[in-house]
Amino acid sequence: MKKRIRKQISDKDAFIAVYFQNGIGNFIMLTSTIKALCEMHRAKVDIVLDDSWKDNRREA
C-alpha cells in the first residue's frame, strides 16, 4: 500500500488576487469563498476593482 505524501506548504507568503469588474455586490456574495481560499492556501487576498467602476449608490 502506497503512503500518502502530503504536499508541504512553502514558508513564502501566498497571495490571491480577486478581480471584480461590476462593483462590490459580487464581493459580498463571494466573501465566504474568498475566506475559504485564504484558509486553504494560507494566503493573503488582494481585492482589485476596475478603475472605471462607479459607485451607483444614492447619497443619504
TrEMBL record:
Name by which UniProt lists this protein: Glycosyltransferase 2-like domain-containing protein
Record organism: marine sediment metagenome
